[in-house]
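Hi support team,

I've been running sequence recovery on a batch of backbones for a student project. Most finish fine, but this one hangs at about 90% for roughly twenty minutes before it completes. I'm not sure whether the input is malformed or the queue is just slow. I've pasted the structure tokens below so you can try to reproduce it. Let me know if you need the job ID as well.

Thanks,
M.K.
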């Protein structure tokens, strides 16, 4: 590793430590609001088992999100915000291979 790149990396690590200790403010913060999972699912017009399958999560996890016992985090949270703002995009990705069946049908 070149010395200049190493020094930049070292400085970044020091800044991260200072931010974590509260000695310094981060240069930017990204905030993704808590999605209303139940309304997003309703907007898509799918059942809980279908929506859970679309997201690659368990129905139990979806229930917990909808009843606000748990909060979606990370990529799931961002995906839900995309589904909320642009449901057509979700259908564009999911519908061509739609093999989702609810447990009541199986």
């Amino acid at each position: 590793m070149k010395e200049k790149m190493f020094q930049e990396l070292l400085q970044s690590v020091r800044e991260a430590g200072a931010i974590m200790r509260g000695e310094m403010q981060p240069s930017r913060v990204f905030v993704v609001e808590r999605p209303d999972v139940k309304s997003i699912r309703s907007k898509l017009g799918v059942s809980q088992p279908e929506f859970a399958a679309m997201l690659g999560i368990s129905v139990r996890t979806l229930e917990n999100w909808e009843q606000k016992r748990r909060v979606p985090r990370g990529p799931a949270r961002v995906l839900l915000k995309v589904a909320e703002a642009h449901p057509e995009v979700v259908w564009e990705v999911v519908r061509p291979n739609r093999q989702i069946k609810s447990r009541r049908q199986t």
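--
Follow-up from support: It reproduced on our side and the slowdown came from queue contention, not your input. The chain is about 60% helix and 0% strand. No action needed from you.
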